[in-house]
């Protein structure tokens, strides 16, 4: 079984990724760490606890609070226009009795990696602030994490926050550059591939009809929160009746890397440019010289990936 920590800014697609991880076979969720991004970090933690109460109330999976702002930048607002006021499409889930752990997100990541060297896969679904802080706490972290799967960035398609930057990297570009040049075994799953895996209203109908009986509450949550997400993608991106599974694809890739086609690339994340901050600069020259090698997803078997996602709930 793959042992994972999910680091997320629990918005709608983060929620889908968490629910997928709680239902997928062959995975142990060792903990969930939260970060600002789609919403504030406290709200991200509260959403996470409520999702755990909905999907796995008996498990007491540890949840840690992480960074409330970027390493050096002022907070530039949240993404409530995409994810709703509360980050999960304004669906009101019952509160949880579970408390947050007393460690910070960075401390939690460092301790788990230290206690289980070579075992833990960290899946980041938000800003890379917590992981950057974890590198400060333990410079030896790169030899202890098995892999870091990052949902973020884009190389071959436009960005979603600026013409060249994707939200998770744009929100803390200093942290992203630090992580990408740290020597950690990073797999970047960017917008250019996640935009190929759409969940549609037809898929939701399938889930409602064929979803397992004990998953009906989860499916009802997905249905309601996705209405918000569909509306945003229709109005802002002309996607009709569908929305991309950004964060779930990164999570699935951590468990089934063969869903993706990947390439080694040397990359840096721009953090000084006025119009280019958060952009992934990939050195695609025959003899790359800028940045460090990471693995980058360049394509996905989209039909299979969506099938894998849906089947976890059926
Ligand atoms: C990423 O940004 C967030 O809004 C989503 O949750 C996802 O992690 C997509 O750019
Ligand atoms: Ca996210």
Automatic annotation (TrEMBL):
InterPro entries: Inosine/uridine_hydrolase_dom (IPR001910), IUNH (IPR023186), Ribo_hydro-like (IPR036452). It comes from the Bacteria. The keyword Hydrolase applies. One of its GO terms (molecular function) is hydrolase activity, acting on glycosyl bonds. It holds the Pfam family IU_nuc_hydro. Residues 4-304 form the Inosine/uridine-preferring nucleoside hydrolase domain. Its EC number is 3.2.-.-. SUPFAM superfamilies: Nucleoside hydrolase (SSF53590). It is an enzyme of class 3 (hydrolase). Keywords: Glycosidase, Hydrolase. The keyword Hydrolase applies. This is Pyrimidine-specific ribonucleoside hydrolase RihA. It comes from Paenibacillus auburnensis.
């Amino acid at each position: 079984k793959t042992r994972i920590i999910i680091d997320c800014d629990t918005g709608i697609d983060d929620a889908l990724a968490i629910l997928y991880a709680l239902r997928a076979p062959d995975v142990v969720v060792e903990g969930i760490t939260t970060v600002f991004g789609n919403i504030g970090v406290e709200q991200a933690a509260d959403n996470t606890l409520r999702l755990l109460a909905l999907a796995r109330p008996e498990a007491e999976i540890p949840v840690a609070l992480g960074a409330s702002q970027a390493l050096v930048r002022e907070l530039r607002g949240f993404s409530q226009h995409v994810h709703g006021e509360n980050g999960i499409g304004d669906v009101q889930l019952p509160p949880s009795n579970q408390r947050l752990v007393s460690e910070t997100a960075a401390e939690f990541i460092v301790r788990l990696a230290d206690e289980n060297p070579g075992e833990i896969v960290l899946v980041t679904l938000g800003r890379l602030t917590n992981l950057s802080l974890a590198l400060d706490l333990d410079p030896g972290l790169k030899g202890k994490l098995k892999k870091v799967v990052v949902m973020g960035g884009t190389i071959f398609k436009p960005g979603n926050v600026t013409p060249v930057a994707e939200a998770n990297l744009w929100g803390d570009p200093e942290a992203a550059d630090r992580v990408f040049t740290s020597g950690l075994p990073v797999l970047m799953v960017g917008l250019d591939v996640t935009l190929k895996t759409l969940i549609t209203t037809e898929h939701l109908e399938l889930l409602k009809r064929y979803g397992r009986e004990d998953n009906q509450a989860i499916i009802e949550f997905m249905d309601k929160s996705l209405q918000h997400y569909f509306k945003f993608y229709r109005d802002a991106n002309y996607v009709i009746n569908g929305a991309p599974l950004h964060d779930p694809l990164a999570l699935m890739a951590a468990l089934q890397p063969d869903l993706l086609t990947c390439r080694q690339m040397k990359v840096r994340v721009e953090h000084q440019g006025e119009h280019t901050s958060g952009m992934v600069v990939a050195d695609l020259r025959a003899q790359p010289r800028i940045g460090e090698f990471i693995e980058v997803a360049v394509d996905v078997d989209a039909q299979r990936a969506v099938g894998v996602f849906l089947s976890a709930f059926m």
